Amino acid sequence: MTFLDSSTIIEYLRDNQTVIDYLDTREPWWTSTICVFEVLNGPAGSPDFDPIEERQMFSGVQALEFNEQLALGASRLQDVAISDGSELSHRDAMIAATARSTGDEYVVADSDFETEPLKDVMEVTNLSDVR
Fold first, then answer.
1. Which H or E run includes 5?
2. Distance (Å, rounded) from C-alpha 66 to C-alpha 109?
3. Which of 12, 29, 34, 67 has the most CB atoms around its CB within 10 Å?
4. Sign (positive/negative) of CA torsion 29, 33, 13, 121?
5. CB 25 within 8 A of CB 127
6. CA–CA gap between residue 120 and residue 112 (Å, rounded)
7. Residue 80 CB neighbours (<10 A)
8. Backbone angles phi, psi at 106, to 5 degrees
9. Which is it for the CA torsion 58, 42, 35, 120, positive or negative?
10. What is the distance between the alpha carbons of residues 23 and 46, in angstroms, rounded to a whole number?
11. Angle 105-110-113 (CA atoms, 0-180°, nearest 5)?
12. DSSP string of 6-58?
């Protein structure tokens, strides 16, 4: 199983060959419901926007819901990040906690999660580093 950040899903939908090559052998794919919102937020407001239709474009990615246990995990991650001097945004802490709960690789395509506290507690692969 591979957990995908919204940045990875967006780059996959943009036909980024680096992302496609990396992910195509790493199914099944999971993400957070927060990431689903982030991906859908991009086209929101455009003419004829239909969130259900947009979601179908990445229907192969299963979403995990955020719950109280994940909120506690996000608080723990945030505590470590703040202690390290690299506070996460609220959404990023929530997404990282969801990814960490799976115990699997978390794949991002930008530098948002390139913080040492996260690297110490979970496997994070940043595809923007291999472009």
1. none
2. 22
3. 12
4. negative
5. no
6. 15
7. 16
8. -105, 120
9. positive
10. 29
11. 55
12. HHHHHHHHTT-HHHHHHHTTS-SEEEEHHHHHHHHHTTTTSTT--HHHHHHTT
Q: How many domains does the chain have?
A: 1
The CATH number of the domain holding residue 101 is 3.40.50.1010
Model pLDDT for residues 14-33, shown as the tens digit of each residue: 999 999 999 999 999 999 99
State pLDDT tens for residues 33-63.
999 999 999 988 889 999 999 999 999 999 9
- pLDDT category of residue 116 using cuts at 50, 70 and 90: low
Query: What 3-state class would DSSP assign to 106?
Result: strand
pLDDT tens digit sequence for 83-101: 888 888 899 999 999 999 9
- Segment 61-82, tens digit of pLDDT: 999 999 999 999 999 999 998 9
**Higher-confidence position of 118 and 106:** 106
DSSP 108-119: ESSSTT--HHHH
The token pair at 30 is 């999971």
Work out whether strand 124-126 and strand 105-108 pair parallel, antiparallel, or are unpaired: parallel
> Which residue's structure tokens are 């906690």?
97
